[in-house]
Amino acid sequence: MKKLIVANWKMNPINIQEAQDIFEGLRKRCDLALRSNPEIVICPPFIYLSQLSGITLGAQNCYWEEKGAYTGEVSVAMLKELGCQYVIVGHSERRKYFMETDEMVNKKTKAVLEAGLTPIVCIGETQEEREGDKTEAILEEEITKGLEGIDLSKIVIAYEPIWAIGTGNACDVDEAQRMKEVILKMTSKDVKIIYGGSANASNAEGYLKQANFDGLLVGGASLNPQEFTQIISLAK
Ligand code: PGA
User: Fold this and answer.
1) Is the pTM above the cut of 0.85?
2) Which of 9, 68, 164, 229 could form a disulfide bond with 29, CB atoms 3.0-4.6 angstroms apart?
3) Residue 165: HSE in the Cβ half-sphere, 13 Å Cα cutoff
4) pLDDT tens digits for 200-226?
5) Probe ligand 1: pick from 92, 127, 160, 228, max atoms within 8 Å of CB?
């Protein structure tokens, strides 16, 4: 099965010129062979989406209503119009800073699927939850509430231990693999599971080959075209 390598640019870079430079740097390195296997998805900030093309695009968030009086929100229909094929849903930063709940994640995931796009639903535990031996309970809750009524064969789950995101403290490959098995037991063997949390060119191989994740969600390292290309080449 094709691996899926997703770049989450978060709220970076600060201007369109830089966004185009990073994108072009990446596109140049990703020749057709690299592009066909694995699948590469770039998720830039909303406002850059219309300016970038040549690699599959995804969004970092969406709203579940199609249109209307929802100031500041962006609907899946709008993202589809811009050529997005994927939408990241329920990233831990959205849960933490924008109070997203599992119920909201569920509505967003359904809206993405209804529009024919693929949701990448993020789940994962905090350091405190891990230390309190609550990891499995948290994942179970995020899955039962967030993915209620959803055809799991049509989505991607990103296991992102929150303590590993942006910290340089990536999850041990063995432990990530164990969590993947736990998530598989709670879901279905048809679901794609990718890993995220300080993934980089040095540790990518472990997640992709040893732990056999279906792909990676890459934040910081995806803004460096050279490093991101190295990650992609490990997923071939
Ligand atoms: P990171 O971010 O690779 O910078 O840890 C991953 C993510 O938040 O998706």
Assistant:
1) yes
2) 229
3) 23
4) 999 999 999 999 999 999 999 999 999
5) 160
